[in-house]
Amino acid sequence: MNQLIIVGAGGYAQELLWIVDDINSERQTWEFLGYVDPKSNAKKGHLHYDRPILGYWDDAPRAGQVHFVCGIGSPQARASECADAERRGYLPAVLVHPSVICARHVKIGAGTVIGAGCILAPYAVLGRHCALNLGVTIGHNSQVGDYSVLSPGAQLLGAAKLEERVFLGANATVYQGRRVGAGSVVGANSFLLTNLGPATSVVGVPAKTLSQAGDGGHSSVPRPKDSALIDGVSSE
Ligand SMILES: CC(C)(COP(=O)(O)OP(=O)(O)OC[C@H]1O[C@@H](n2cnc3c(N)ncnc32)[C@H](O)[C@@H]1OP(=O)(O)O)[C@@H](O)C(=O)NCCC(=O)NCCS
After folding, report:
1. Any atom of ligand 1 within 6 Å of the Cβ of 38
2. Closest Cα partner for 34 from 49, 22, 24, 12?
3. Whose CA is nearest to atom 39 of ligand 1?
4. How far does residue 110's CA lie from ligand 1's centre (Å)?
5. Whole-prediction pTM
6. How much is the pLDDT for 223?
7. How many CB atoms lie within 10 A of CB 203?
8. Half-sphere exposure at residue 41, Cβ-oriented, CA atoms within 13 angstroms
9. Which end of the chain has the least Cβ crowding within 10 Å, N or C?
10. What is the pLDDT of residue 234?
11. How far is the CA of 203 from the centre of ligand 1 (A)?
């Protein structure tokens, strides 16, 4: 079995352990070692969803063959913490809940995690360290950029494209063929009908701009950074 740690020790980190448990109940795949809290060791030794918080990186098992996934729900924080974990020598894992429906010719980047009930249509491409929460639908030929976070029920209709570090709120929908710029945010229950530039925050049906790059910023807008190569797994 491969050894695994989860980076982060909050609510979403528990959901990743749930995926691990369900994968292991089908086939013993991962030996889960514990959570690493990249911010502090204050919760060291506490149980979190019945498993130990190891503490800060100093308390983590040595890198080498230890894999990691990121249990942090902000694209910007995912980007920095995943880069840090990789610098320390930990290997990105891919977690796909057994209930996920995945077509042929789908690519999933290293470090990406996919929760229960998601559907990936033909030729969907997911970048590195993306997080697809519960019941997310990725339409055919759609692309999700590195570190993007798709909240429960979010949907990309066919051939939509998210650049890196996009955040889609719960039940947000991106219309077919539309492109969302790096670091942008689509609010919960919003329906995006237009293309979006970088670092833009939109809400509503149809979605309208709440804030955009250069106007003083929006607390929830992550900053763009270079995309990384996809080197994860692909379906036949
Ligand atoms: C879009 C979002 C990031 C904006 O957050 P924020 O910067 O704190 O924005 P505010 O709460 O200050 O709201 C600003 C305005 O936008 C409106 N608004 C915020 N979110 C909205 C949404 N999803 N749909 C419609 N209007 C929304 C507010 O009513 C407010 O309007 P007002 O200025 O007329 O009063 C946030 O509301 C959101 O939708 N987050 C996603 C949450 C989510 O799905 N989490 C998943 C966890 S698993």
Report:
1. no
2. 49
3. 187
4. 31
5. 0.93
6. 35
7. 17
8. 8
9. C
10. 75
11. 7
CA–CA–CA angle 175, 158, 212 (5° rounding):
35
- Exposed, middle or buried by CB within 10 Å (0-12, 13-18, 19+), for 117? middle
Regarding the beta carbon of 185 and ligand 1, being less than 6 Å apart is answered yes
Residue in 228, 132, 150, 223 with CA at minimum distance from that of residue 183: 223
pLDDT mean for each 10 residues of the chain (236 residues): 97 98 98 96 96 96 95 98 98 98 98 98 98 98 98 98 98 98 98 98 98 64 35 70
**C-alpha distances in angstroms, 53 versus 36, 49, 65, 153, 154?**
6, 10, 20, 29, 30
- Find the 209 Cα to ligand 1 centroid distance in Å: 11
CA of 23 to the centre of ligand 1 (A): 34
* Residue 169 in contact with ligand 1 by CB distance below 6 A: yes
> Does residue 187 line the site of ligand 1, with CB under 6 A?
yes
- Residue 231: its pLDDT value, please? 53
Domains along the sequence of the chain with CATH? 2-94 (3.40.50.20)
Calculate how far, in angstroms, residue 155's C-alpha sits from the geometric centre of ligand 1.
18
